[in-house]
Specification:
The protein is an alpha/beta fold. Helices cover 23% and strands 19% of the residues. It has 2 domains: 348 residues, Alkaline Phosphatase, subunit A, CATH 3.40.720; 63 residues, Arylsulfatase, C-terminal domain (2-Layer Sandwich), CATH 3.30.1120.10.
Length: 428
């Protein structure tokens, strides 16, 4: 299903529009939070966020890997449409195209102050910095802390552009201090906001992506080892952000989302009852934990319907006063009526498409049925009775396999026809 959205130039809501705080972990698994079943990792702040809001248990990252999910988050559509279906590396000179209307650009047109704190990974040369895509404030790493080689054109050992404040290069903090430094920047942004102007804060953590590191304050504290220490530091960070909002009297009018860009790396995080890990189209690679709390959301509710990273764009913009008229094509949907209901309404999504690296469509889900077609391997799972994808029932349901195969062909064709150009550096 494709949504169509064009933005008003100012907020159309009569009441004060909500603030948005989106916390995105990097490689956090479905089973790595207490409110999603972790017994070894303590996450009291995120757990309390779930208690005062909704827990989305069929929430999908747009892909089982970072850059594509982040591109989908910023544009509201599959990364294959915008030319960024594969993670960017130090030698890549491409990025998110300047013509893409991003979520922060949309919100800024509606009067929002915007900040990106942390990992960007949608282009690490000047033309593609977050400040060129709608963010008023940036503090973080355009690539990610995992890269120890310099960008294109830099001498060996020169990592001067791997960490930025605005568009100015600054020394990159040690890995052990990254979560705390990013948290300080996020809190500083919150403390500077006026109550009469809404804001969007995108706090994109670099952890628990490898290399894992944590300061002495958190080292050895978790029963989940170093990985658990890192996740518990992320939970502390979330608590600090919530406390800053409360101190400024902003919490009651702020929608806070905590989620992950994809599933855990094999050997580190936990996918809970799900099969698979990062890079894989099985549920453990794509289905991620998500909690959301704020004005208009019921307390302590579980939402089991399909929701996705791409839904945040149209949902946030609609809440901010954007008007749905002919214009920008999105794959995400405004899911606010689903989230804000006190009972399980029908999701606007009747399916989810599993895109993997290089924009390959590996499968599709419709309701309870999920089809994966990888090379010559055909797998059909009944997610209603087998969320762990242990029993391949393709041979028993040839009609369903044929129907979903036909649907995959249609999705591939539609995305191919609507593919938009990738950004390339301008000549200077």
């Amino acid at each position: 299903m494709v949504a169509v959205l064009l933005l008003a130039t100012c907020s159309a809501t009569a009441a004060s529009p909500p603030n948005f705080v989106l916390v995105l972990a990097d490689d956090l698994g479905y089973g790595d939070l207490g409110c999603f079943g972790s017994e070894k990792i303590a996450t009291p702040h995120v757990d309390r966020l779930a208690e005062r809001g909704v827990r989305l248990t069929s929430f999908y990252a747009a892909a089982p890997i970072c850059t594509p999910t982040r591109a989908a988050l910023m544009t509201g559509c599959h990364a294959a449409r915008v030319g960024l279906p594969t993670p960017l590396h130090v030698y890549d000179e491409i990025g998110l195209h300047p013509d893409e209307v991003t979520l922060p650009e949309a919100l800024r047109k509606l009067g929002y102050r915007t900040a990106c704190i942390g990992k960007w990974h949608l282009g690490h040369t000047l033309d593609f910095y977050p400040t060129r895509h709608g963010f008023d404030v940036y503090f973080g790493t355009p690539l990610g802390h995992m890269f120890n080689r310099p960008p294109v054109g830099k001498a060996k050992g020169d990592t001067s552009d791997l960490f930025l404040e605005g568009e100015r290069s600054i020394p990159m903090p040690a890995d052990a201090d990254l979560t705390e430094r990013l948290t300080e920047a996020a809190v500083d942004f919150i403390e500077k906001q006026r109550k009469d102007r809404p804001f969007f804060l995108y706090l994109a953590h670099t952890m628990p992506h490898e290399p894992l590191a944590v300061s002495q304050r958190f080292a050895g504290k978790s029963r989940g080892g170093l990985y658990g220490d890192v996740v518990e530091c992320l939970d502390w960070s979330t608590g600090r952000v919530l406390a800053a909002l409360e101190k400024r009297g902003l919490l009651e009018n702020t929608i806070v989302v905590f989620t992950s860009d994809n599933g855990p790396k094999r050997g580190h995080g936990a996918a809970g009852p799900l099969r698979g890990f990062k890079h894989e189209p099985y549920e453990g690679g794509v289905r991620v934990p998500c909690v959301m709390a704020g004005p208009g959301l019921p307390r302590g509710r579980e939402v089991t319907s399909i929701t996705t990273t791409m839904d945040l764009y149209p949902t946030f913009v609609a809440l901010a006063g954007g008007k749905p008229v002919a214009g920008q094509v999105l794959d995400g949907e405004n899911v606010w009526s689903l989230l804000s209901s006190t009972h399980e309404d029908e999701s606007p999504h009747d399916e989810f498409a599993y895109f993997v690296r290089h924009g390959v469509l590996a499968g599709v889900r419709q309701g309870r049925w999920k089809l994966l077609r990888q090379r010559e391997n055909v797998e059909l799972f009944d997610l209603q009775s087998d969320v762990g994808e242990r029993a391949n029932v393709a041979e028993r349901h040839p009609t369903i396999v044929a129907r979903l195969t036909e649907r995959m062909t249609a999705i591939e064709s539609a995305v191919r026809r609507s593919r938009r150009p990738v950004g390339r550096p301008r000549e200077r």
